């Protein structure tokens, strides 16, 4: 079953040229789907449209086989990690992480259990009483990840969630995110411009350039049979 489907989706801002051009795409339940492309290629815009944070100019977006073009973000049953983290500045780390669960009236015991598990995994258990401004960039990034993960939404959208971490922590988080995604059977749409992340985490990878799909395939196919020179140079195969 498809978790997400895009049918002839296009996007332009005002009267500018299309930022995204006729995107057709199906993402299966439980799939780890990676979106790569250079800066400005339209990755964040595509993710924001799936989340419902950005209108689409043309086409249909389906989640769980249901057209969601007019559904607000809160009714799409997904979680999202933004590039800029978007933490509430006046709330503590703990309050930030639990915000969504409290709004959904998840019981206290369950909240505490998920909080403990998630914070251990993200190595932020010692930061719960701090405010976002008292955290480093990498710590904020992990809090944003924790807030998304704790919701246990079946569809998770992540926009370059590890870009602010040092190499060692990034390698650790790659493994943690992948393990968690498998364990919960999450459908993941994961934006990165890091080839190593794409190749090691993705069940399938989509390469985007100038708002157009260059190729969609599993890592080995992209590496061995790049559809064009752009994909070859981007994925780094010798061809
Ligand atoms: P990426 O995430 O791949 O770096 P984006 O999706 O952020 O790319 O941006 C794709 C293109 O859309 C860029 O050329 C960017 O300048 C443009 N863009 C993004 N948001 C807006 C906006 N709100 N208004 C006008 N242009 C925008
Ligand atoms: Mg972006």
Automatic annotation (TrEMBL):
<dbReference type="GO" id="GO:0055052">
    <property type="term" value="C:ATP-binding cassette (ABC) transporter complex, substrate-binding subunit-containing"/>
</dbReference>
<dbReference type="GO" id="GO:0008643">
    <property type="term" value="P:carbohydrate transport"/>
</dbReference>
<keyword id="KW-0813">Transport</keyword>
<feature type="domain" description="ABC transporter">
    <location>
        <begin position="4"/>
        <end position="235"/>
    </location>
</feature>
<dbReference type="GO" id="GO:0016887">
    <property type="term" value="F:ATP hydrolysis activity"/>
</dbReference>
<keyword id="KW-1278">Translocase</keyword>
<protein>
    <submittedName>
        <fullName>ABC transporter ATP-binding protein</fullName>
    </submittedName>
</protein>
<dbReference type="GO" id="GO:0005524">
    <property type="term" value="F:ATP binding"/>
</dbReference>
<dbReference type="GO" id="GO:0140359">
    <property type="term" value="F:ABC-type transporter activity"/>
</dbReference>
<keyword id="KW-0547">Nucleotide-binding</keyword>
<keyword id="KW-0472">Membrane</keyword>
<keyword id="KW-0067">ATP-binding</keyword>
<keyword id="KW-1003">Cell membrane</keyword>
